[in-house]
C-alpha cells in the first residue's frame, strides 16, 4: 500500500481530533492534548498549536505559552536519533555533565540542539530517577547505564551510519 | 461596608475588608513603591518591590497581594526592605539592556524613577546584555524586549481588560519573553485589536507608540480605570 | 451498610514451592530485567514454578534483582542477573542447591534492616495485577474506612497518628485533611503530588511503579474523609512506566468496584484521573501544580489563599505527596497508636529515602524517622571511593550534612537545625573526591533552568548567582564575589515568591556554612582542592 505523506498527516490530524473529543474540548486538558499532538507529529509546529487553540477556544498565545513553558514539548523538529544525557545530582557527580560536554564537542551540537542534517538531537534531562545507574544516557528510548564517552560515541555513530546505508 | 483597623508605620489606618495593604497604606500617606502592580489589574505579587514587613510573619509579604487584616502591624520602609528593593532594581537593570538615553520613556519610566528614588547610582552585578530583539512589525506600536522587565502588565491588561489575550509569555526563567499569539510578529497578529492598552500599561519603554519616539505619554491611569469600569 | 470484604483469590506460591520474583522497576528494566523474566518464563513456563514480575526490591544499583522463595528455605536475593545466570541459578535450586554466585548475604543490611510500611508490598506483589495487591491486603483499609468509620473519625485518626507531609514541608497531614473536610463548597478535589522533581529523588517513582494500588487506596480514603469525589494524580513526565502502571491500576480498580461510582456498594463515589507532567520542577510547588493540572503554565501564585481554601477550579483541594498517601492504608489498618510507635515523638512513622552517589549500594531505603544518618550510610554499605565528606538532602532545595554531624537523627527538625531539609527524601552521599562549590554550582544552574521566571528575585537572582559560581569554578572570582553571592542568596531566600526561589540558595548557603574553606581555596589560591573544577577561565555553560 502506498501511504502518501498527506494521508499520513490526515490520519494524524484525525487521531488528534479524536483525543480532543475524548477530552470534550475542555481547555483544562490542554497539556494532555499537547502530549497527544506531540506523540502524533513528533513535535509541535505552529499550525498544530494554532489548530489546538482554535478547537479548545483558547487564545493562541496562551497555547504557545504553555507549550514553551514545559521542557517536554518540542517546538523544533527533533533529529532522527536522540541522545538524552541525565544530569541529575548523581549523574553529575559521576561525570554526566562532563560527558554531555564531550558529546557536544564531538558532534558539534549544543545541548538542546539538532545537527543541521537532522540526524541527531542532543539533550539533557534533570534526573530520570534511576540514580543507581549513574551516569545514565538514553539513546532512542534505550537506556545505557553507567555510560562512558567511548562506547556512547561508538553506539551513536553506529546508529547514524546504519541510517546512511538503509534505503 | 465592614471596616477594620491596622497599623502602618506606627499610624492607625482604617481599611475596608478585603482591601490590600498597599491600598490602605497609600490612602494613609505611606507610599510603597511598586512595579508590576497596576490599579485595576489582579495583583501578581511578582516584582517583589512592594514587600512590607508584618509583625509576626516570618518573611516580608507583597503589599499589593496581601489583604489588610484587623490588628496587623505593618512597616513599609525598614533598612532591610530598602536593601531588598535596591537589590531587585539592580538585578532588573542588569538583566536586559536598559539604556535610558535612547529610550522613549526616558524621564517617564517607572523603573528609572524607582532607581532614582532608591538612590541607585551603580549596579553591583554583571550586566548580562542578552540580544533580546525588537519587533516593529505593527503599524502603530513596537516592542523592544531589551527594555522589558517581565512584569506582565501588558499580558494581564490584554487578558483581563481588553479580553483579547494577545500577549503571553514564551519559555520560562531567564529565557522568558513576552510573545504575541504564536510567537509571531505583532503586525501579523490575528487577535490584537490595536487598542494600545498594553502600551499604556508598560512601566518602561518596552512597549511604545511608533510615532512618538521620545514622548510616550505618562501612563494614563484614568483611562485604564475607565476601561475596566466599562468592561464590568 | 454492607461492607464486602476483599477476598483472597490467587495463591501466591504455586506447586513445587518455588517462587521467583524478578524486579521490574525501571532501573532494573534498564539493566535488562525483562530479558531475565522472559528467559525464566521460557525455561519454566510449564513447570511448577511461579515466575512473577514485581516492583522495586530496593538495591537499584545491583539490578537486575531476583528473589527466590522456597518452602523451608530462607528467602534469597540475587544481584546483577543475566538471563543465563538466572536460569542457571534456578536450575540449581530445582536440583536442591542454593548457589552462592550473585547471592546477597542473608543479613544484607540494605534489605534486612529496613522497616517497610509504605513500601511493604513493593517488590512482593505484581504491580500490574490487582489480585496480587488484594491478596496482600490491598484495599482492606478502604473497605474498613468507608464501611466502619465516619469522615471525622478518619481525619482524627490521621491526626492522632502524627503523620506529617512527606513531600518535604512536614505539615501535619491530619490538620490539612480536617481543613479540607471542614471547608464549604459542593466540589472538592484530592491531588497526589507525584512530580518528584528533585534530582536524586526516586521514592515516589518506586511506590507508583511497584504498588500503584497503595496510592489509589490512600487517595480514595482521603476522598471519603474530606468529601471529595474527584482525584488527580500528577505524575512526572519522566516516569512513563509509573504513569502506565497507574493508568492500568485505575482501570482495574474501577472494574473491581474499588474506584468510580458507588465504591464497594457504599454509595461513596470517587474517580481518579492521571495528569502527566511535561517537565517542570516548579510543578512540585502546590500552586504551580494546580495550574498545571488545569492546563496552564506551571507558575506559582501567592498563598494565601491556600489550596485547602481555594484550589482547583476555585474549590477546596487536598494536596499530598505520593508517599503521604502511601502511609494512609497502614494507619487505618493498624491504628494511629501503632504508627506513632514507629519513629520518634513528633516524627512518627517511617520515611523512604533514595540513597545514591558514593555508596556501595544505591537504591530505596525505608527506615523509622529519627534513624541516625550514620546508620543509613551503614545500611547502604558505607561510602565508596574515598572517605565520607557530605550527604546532600532535600535536592535542589536542601543542603549538606558534613562529616561532623553524621550522627544526626534524620527527622524534620534535626535536619532543619543543620540548615538543610528533609525534602522528599533524596539522599546523595559524597566522598572526598567531590568539590562542594561544584555541587553548589550544579544546583544553582538547575534552579536557574527551572525557575518559572515570574518573580524577579528568583529569575534574575539565580542567573547572577550561577554566574558568580561559574567565576568561582573558573578561578576568576575575588573574595568580594563570595560575599556578594552570600548577600544575593540571603536576599533570594527572603524575597522570592514561591518555595523554589526561597530554597534555591540553600545549597549555596549550606556549603558556605560547612565548607567555606573550599570556596576560599578556589578564590584565594585559584585551586580546586578536590580537582573537580577546571580553573581555566570561564567554563562552558550547559
From TrEMBL, chain B:
Residues 80-119 form the 4Fe-4S His(Cys)3-ligated-type domain. Residues 139-170, 183-212 form the 4Fe-4S ferredoxin-type domain. Residues 2-80 form the 2Fe-2S ferredoxin-type domain. It is found in: Membrane. CDD domains: fer2. Its main location: membrane. GO terms for cellular component: membrane. It comes from the Bacteria. Keywords: 2Fe-2S, 4Fe-4S, Homeobox, Iron, Iron-sulfur, Membrane, Metal-binding, NAD, Translocase. GO terms for molecular function: 2 iron, 2 sulfur cluster binding; 4 iron, 4 sulfur cluster binding; DNA binding; metal ion binding; oxidoreductase activity. Its cofactor is [4Fe-4S] cluster; [2Fe-2S] cluster. Belongs to the complex I 75 kDa subunit family. This is Bidirectional hydrogenase complex protein HoxU. The lineage of its organism: Bacteria, Pseudomonadati, Thermodesulfobacteriota, Desulfuromonadia, Geobacterales. The gene is hoxU.
TrEMBL record, chain C:
GO terms for molecular function: 4 iron, 4 sulfur cluster binding; FMN binding; metal ion binding; NADH dehydrogenase (ubiquinone) activity. Gene3D superfamilies: 3.10.20.600, 6.10.250.1450, Glutaredoxin, NADH-ubiquinone oxidoreductase 51kDa subunit, NADH-ubiquinone oxidoreductase 51kDa subunit, iron-sulphur binding domain. CDD domains: TRX_Fd_family. Coiled coil: none annotated. The keyword Ligase does not apply. It comes from the Bacteria. Residues 437-482 form the NADH-ubiquinone oxidoreductase 51kDa subunit iron-sulphur binding domain. InterPro entries: NADH-UbQ_OxRdtase_51kDa_CS, Nuo51_FMN-bd, Nuo51_FMN-bd_sf, Nuop51_4Fe4S-bd, Nuop51_4Fe4S-bd_sf, Soluble_ligand-bd, Thioredoxin-like_sf. It holds the Pfam family Complex1_51K. Signal peptide: none annotated. The keyword Methyltransferase does not apply. Keywords: 4Fe-4S, Iron, Iron-sulfur, Metal-binding. Belongs to the complex I 51 kDa subunit family. This is NADH-quinone oxidoreductase subunit L. It comes from Oryzomonas japonica. The lineage of its organism: Bacteria, Pseudomonadati, Thermodesulfobacteriota, Desulfuromonadia, Geobacterales.
